[in-house]
Amino acid sequence: MDGAGLRALRNDPRPIVGASLLIQAPTGEYESDKVINLGTNRWSAKPAIGVIWPIKPTWLFEFEIGAWLFGDNDDFLGQTRAQDPLLSTEFHLVKRIRPGFWASLDANFYVGGRTSVDNEDRGDFQRNSRVGATLVFPIKGRHALRSSYSTGAVTESGGDFEIFTMSYLYAW
After folding, report:
1. What does the DSSP 8-state code read for residue 141?
2. 135 pairs with which residues across the strands?
């Protein structure tokens, strides 16, 4: 989409549906005799579908649903480690303030992902969600600052933490 098309979409927003596919190769250092590794020794993929739904010209509702699919690690301490799919969803209520300046309320949810080693299920079924907010402030031209905050809403596995981030963005 060129600049004129993007301006027209901003002035008269319409629903947009998109799809993505993320593939992760088994990269990184992997030592089959260690439980904790930098690499995973398996392939994984996440197909997803996302929708942007305009509520009003400056209010948008975005959501995505996807699933992480994992290959087996056939060299996990001399055994096979498998993992069930992990369903993921995320939601954003976005307020566009002016071009490049926007804020959102964010939420996500993950469920599934139980692992097994040599067909013996582990007690690591995941059911976690987070909530937060994001603010993007344009500086000049194609430069912007982004700040975000999130906290655990439901944490049944893994760490329960709060995070604040600040980042610099450049659009080309």
Report:
1. T
2. 103, 147
